[in-house]
From TrEMBL:
This is Lipid kinase. Residues 1-127 form the DAGKc domain. Keywords: ATP-binding, Kinase, Lipid biosynthesis, Lipid metabolism, Magnesium, Metal-binding, Nucleotide-binding, Phospholipid biosynthesis, Phospholipid metabolism, Transferase. Pfam families: DAGK_cat (PF00781), YegS_C (PF19279). NCBIfam families: PRK13057.1, YegS/Rv2252/BmrU family lipid kinase. Belongs to the diacylglycerol/lipid kinase family. GO terms for molecular function: kinase activity. InterPro entries: ATP-NAD_kinase_N, Diacylglycerol/lipid_kinase, Diacylglycerol_kinase_cat_dom, Lipid_Phosphate_FormReg, NAD/diacylglycerol_kinase_sf, YegS/DAGK_C. It comes from the Bacteria. Its cofactor is Mg(2+).
Amino acid sequence: MIPRALLLVNRHARQGQKRLAEAIQCLEKSGFHLIEESTEKPHQISDIILHYRNQVDLVIVGGGDGTLNAAADALVKTQLPLGILPLGTANDLARTLGIPNSLTAACKIIANGQRQRIDLGWVNGKHFFNVASMGLSVKITQRLTKEVKRRWGVLAYLATALQVVWESRPFSAEIRMNGESIRVRTVQIAVGNGRYYGGGMTVAHDATIDDQRLDLYSIEINYWWQIIPLLPAMRQGKHIQAKQVRDLQGQDIVIHTRKPRPINTDGEITTYTPAHFYVIPKAISVFVPTGGEQF
């Protein structure tokens, strides 16, 4: 039986429009019957998936982490397996799962049919794959335009981060988890479900997307320049070893701030504090590389 796949490609993703025809050809060659729908408005993605839920066997999403995030709610509801074509700028979820940026290789992974159930994070009614955060990351998101990402790729994250770091000012927050209440003065709080975020930075050195836990870190510095030595360590997740960084793990976290602060989930500002986070173990099924695949 020929598998029926709903193909959703974000034409505004860094490589979306340019590689749409290539993606269709590659998937049809791999034996899929495709239903292709436009996703020029990401907020419509969930409705499209729900509309086709009884007509397809899987959903294939081509785009970046923001596009994948927009599909998360409907994937949970329908339990349709997810195939990923990394066509965005950062592709952090693909990186976490070991899916290469090669379109041919990504199609091969979907065709081979190896699946893995992964966790999802949840905050104030919104699912996330990678990280939900507040503070510096929100300023980066607000500055990081589509044009900048399309032109500079992953380097856009670093360049924008350097621009906003010097403007950073600590804010007060209360973190409640594991029966404790912790008050902090911080410039960034990140709550990670997966391993990678922000163009390849690591949440924690041992984080995985199926470990059934959330990894929280809080950068507690007094002056903007104190974050500079931490930046290289953030690529490997070793920043949590620094004395200025608080490292916590749990399954259920509540964060309060004096005034509502925006929260960035997988690269999009979607909610505000006060925020309730928790992990949903083995929430959805994703196509991943088999142990013997070489790229």
